[in-house]
Amino acid sequence: MRRPTPSPRPRATPDPAPGAHVLWSRRRCLDALLCATTGAALASCGDADSSELAYHERPARPPRPQHRFAVHPLHNPRKLAAAYQPLLDHLNAALPQLGLELEASRDYRAYEAKYRQRGPHFLLPNPWHTLQALKAGYRVIAMAGDAEDFRGLFLVRQDSPLRRVEALRGRVVSYPSPTALAACVMPQYFLYQHGLDVLREVTHRYVGSQESAIMHAVLGQSDAAVTWPLPWRMFQREHPAEAAQMRVLAETPSLVNNSVMARDDLPVALSDALRDALLALDPTGNGREVLDAMAIARFHPADAQRYAPVARFIAEFERRVRPVEAA
User: Fold this and answer.
1) Which of 4, 27, 53, 117 has its CA 20 to 30 A from that of 176?
2) Which DSSP letter does residue 324 get?
3) Regarding beta strands 100-103 and 67-71, do their DSSP bridges make them parallel or antiparallel, or are they unpaired?
4) Burial of 19 (0-12, 13-18, 19+ CB in 10 A)
């Protein structure tokens, strides 16, 4: 008796690359959908020749270009989306060629790594980040908010005995980050100007975000919190009970506000269109809701020269107090 020919042993399939199982599952879903569509078509066509049917895996419309718009970490990602997604929705409706996507960062360090690697196409950084992003190959196209609004605020509890900024000697102060210009660098220079040895006579706690810095003071985990008007307005709006427990102890002089920047390899026409759309936002008309969400007055024309005073201030701060990135 002839022995049956053994069936060939199935060949081993290597483990899929990371993410391949997701693509395979999507392919199976697509196949199932095509099969169902084919069956429905054949049933409705009766004896029609199925060889005339043709299927194409083609999207209904070409995908829109996607450009990443990275905002420095003023808030946690959820609140950042609530504040800035209305702006991006407005810009995408006005300029479909942009296809802007809002990008949040978990903290200042992560944000700084992004622009140094030239990842995002557009940035909304603080003025110190602006100077660093210029070196990485971005250019300034606008300023977000009024210059007078960019100043540091020292917040203390209503029941705090502190009445002057000099009284922070020997106290704990909370900040979002050592590189937060209005919410750390400018206030620390203000302490220096009022006679404090900033590195020895104050305990500094860098807690990751503007809201966290404020909440540390609300909860008594620091004697004072440092922030600036924009996040303080948003905190008052979203946490009125906690904000009512706080008062402003002191304010620094103002400098220059956050910038909007475009990566220098983008078409100039594209970044110019974005600039024009930002400058066209009218706080009394079409842009009121968008600007209110961000808690800023308007966008202003600006270029790199507008941030020259920041460079001079940073040089003086680093000479008198500390390196910005070495805290």
Assistant:
1) 117
2) G
3) parallel
4) exposed
Full DSSP string of 185-220? IHHHHHHHHTT--HHHHSEEEE-SSHHHHHHHHHTT
DSSP label of 166 = G
The answer to whether the CB of 211 falls within 8 A of the CB of 159 is: no
Q: What are the tens digits of pLDDT across the range 222-272?
A: 999 999 999 999 999 999 999 999 999 999 999 999 999 999 999 999 999
Count other C-beta atoms under 10 Å from residue 324's C-beta: 19
Q: What is the pLDDT of residue 54?
A: 37
Q: Which of 256, 236, 237 is nearest to 245 (CA)?
A: 236
Q: How far is CA 136 from CA 99, 133, 306, 314, 319, in A?
A: 23, 5, 18, 18, 24
pLDDT category at 57 given cuts 50, 70, 90 is: very low
Tell me the two tokens of residue 272: 């110019």
Mean pLDDT on 33-61: 39
Single pTM value for the model: 0.75
CA torsion 125→126→129→133, rounded to 10°?
Answer: 40
Q: Where are the beta strands (DSSP E) in 223-303?
A: 224-227, 246-251, 258-263, 299-300
The structure tokens listed for 308 are 């020259």
